[in-house]
Give the backbone structure.
Amino acid sequence: MLPLFLFAAALFAQDYAGTEMCQGCHEDIAKAFLKSNPHAVLETNKRRGWETKSCEACHGSGVKHAESAEAALIRNPRKLSTAETDKTCMACHGNQQTHSGRVVTGHARQQMACTSCHSIHAKAPEPKSQCGSCHLGEKVSFAKPHAHPVPQGAMSCTDCHSPHGTVLSKALNTAIGNEPGCLRCHGDKRGPFTFEHAPVRLDGCGSCHEPHGSANPRMLTRPSVSQLCLECHAGTFTAGLGGVPPAFHDIRTARYRNCTTCHMKIHGSHVSKALLR
Ligand code: HEC
Ligand code: HEC
Ligand code: HEC
Ligand code: HEC
Ligand code: HEC
Ligand code: HEC
Ligand code: HEC
Ligand code: HEC
Ligand code: HEC
Ligand code: HEC
């Protein structure tokens, strides 16, 4: 009869086969993993609870599988349901800031598992470069004459979106607080201004710009600036919030058609109520 504590120790030792055991049969995977996978810290870090048995952090106990070498006796995250796979990963990644909007993202709603974008062992394309394969329309849009330099590789979809979802709709990244993420790069458009231009603050950048690219200069939603302005600032055009420009604006003359030559501070001004400077 074993003393109780030895019995407990033996039982505990039975729980996990240990990485060395896995490595015996899966040498290539284990070697590559221990050399360069970010998860290799699990193997050595004493505080995370998976020291010397890191494989089993995701694959579950491999004791029975190591004895039999039967595929059915080990957990392969790729073959599990989305919910089960995600549970495996979220056990450690759940409290990360970048996953705070996860429940509301279209990716989660559509049952995309973590492993549809992240590959742990296989040499797969970087998650960042996968977006266009599903979102073809958005990808193609960046080929328009005026667009952010995404195809050139100077920016990526994830500069504006979090693949994991955010507190904003469309999984849009935020800057400080819940400010639109555009302001991370276009800080000069950040208020508060003494004189705000209402749509910038209330409707957001997207009320005048097409962030995915546009045929119009400055990625505007309309071919000419005056057309854009007059949609809100003229009674004859379809209903908008803004008032009619003063009568001295004879918009039939070329002089007044180029609104932003005078209203230069179109995103907000510290000195001019009429956004002139
Ligand atoms: C005695 C050799 C042996 C040991 C030890 C071993 N494996 Fe395997 N493992 C295999 C073989 C052989 C297969 C392929 C089985 C098949 O395809 O039918 C396999 C398959 C797998 C699979 C894929 C299962 C699937 O459904 O696709 C995973 C995951 C796995 N092993 C993980 C581990 C882990 C983790 C350990 C250590 C706890 C481990 N193995 C230890 C031999 C071993
Ligand atoms: C962070 C989680 C994680 C850890 C840790 C991990 N794996 Fe995996 N493993 C996966 C996932 C996910 C897959 C599914 C295929 C993929 O994503 O590459 C997988 C697949 C496998 C497979 C099946 C091969 C295949 O191509 O489907 C084997 C064998 C395997 N892992 C062995 C190991 C061994 C050995 C270790 C430790 C050295 C280990 N894994 C550590 C997550 C993990
Ligand atoms: C046992 C805890 C644990 C589990 C389970 C786990 N991870 Fe990790 N993951 C980590 C640790 C620790 C790191 C190293 C980076 C760090 O210190 O945060 C990491 C790093 C990563 C990274 C790279 C981060 C970077 O900055 O490059 C990705 C991507 C990732 N994990 C995805 C996954 C996926 C997908 C799964 C599920 C298949 C998973 N993880 C399961 C603990 C875990
Ligand atoms: C495997 C296909 C696939 C890949 C890869 C993919 N997505 Fe998605 N994405 C979807 C689906 C499906 C939806 C949900 C559409 C719906 O609900 O109508 C979605 C929705 C979205 C949305 C809309 C907002 C939301 O939360 O519903 C954004 C933004 C988005 N994806 C960005 C990205 C980015 C950025 C990447 C790359 C990191 C990416 N997607 C990679 C399939 C994919
Ligand atoms: C639509 C594809 C997609 C899905 C689904 C996805 N990721 Fe990511 N993940 C990415 C991309 C792209 C990055 C790089 C983000 C960047 O560079 O800004 C990333 C980064 C990460 C990182 C590094 C740290 C961070 O947050 O930026 C971790 C950890 C991670 N993902 C874990 C997960 C886990 C866990 C899941 C499942 C709950 C998951 N991911 C689902 C695409 C995805
Ligand atoms: C410069 C910032 C920016 C970049 C870069 C960007 N997006 Fe967007 N995206 C946005 C904004 C802003 C919206 C919301 C537009 C709206 O609400 O009308 C959006 C909306 C979306 C939507 C939701 C569309 C819908 O109709 O619901 C998807 C999907 C999407 N983007 C995918 C992508 C993909 C894929 C890439 C990379 C090829 C990308 N985005 C790059 C800013 C960006
Ligand atoms: C990661 C940084 C980054 C983010 C985030 C970003 N932009 Fe940009 N933006 C740029 C860069 C870089 C350029 C310059 C592109 C060029 O000159 O080719 C630019 C140019 C522009 C232009 C001017 C184009 C022109 O023809 O002069 C507009 C308008 C614009 N961005 C709007 C937005 C909006 C709206 C958002 C948010 C939905 C946004 N940007 C988010 C980096 C960013
Ligand atoms: C009321 C419409 C409107 C809104 C809302 C708006 N813009 Fe603009 N934006 C314009 C117009 C018009 C131009 C072109 C000015 C010109 O050509 O003289 C412009 C030009 C730009 C430019 C390029 C020239 C420059 O000034 O740097 C950037 C970048 C830009 N906007 C970013 C943004 C961002 C970021 C937001 C949201 C915070 C935003 N815009 C909201 C109308 C708007
Ligand atoms: C999406 C609708 C919208 C668009 C587009 C728009 N505005 Fe406005 N604008 C408003 C609203 C709403 C106000 C504030 C309400 C008001 O005072 O009439 C405002 C206020 C103004 C003011 C200050 C009026 C005052 O009394 O202080 C000026 C000047 C102005 N806009 C010029 C422009 C110019 C120039 C353009 C084109 C580059 C433009 N707006 C595009 C909606 C719009
Ligand atoms: C030649 C310069 C110039 C041009 C071009 C111009 N504006 Fe103005 N705008 C002004 C001046 C000056 C004011 C009056 C400012 C004041 O009264 O303090 C004004 C006032 C306004 C106001 C109302 C401000 C208020 O206090 O009620 C609006 C709205 C407006 N402009 C819109 C436009 C639109 C839309 C266009 C293009 C179709 C345009 N402006 C073109 C110079 C110009």
Remarks:
- The CA atoms of residues 18 and 53 lie 4 Å apart.
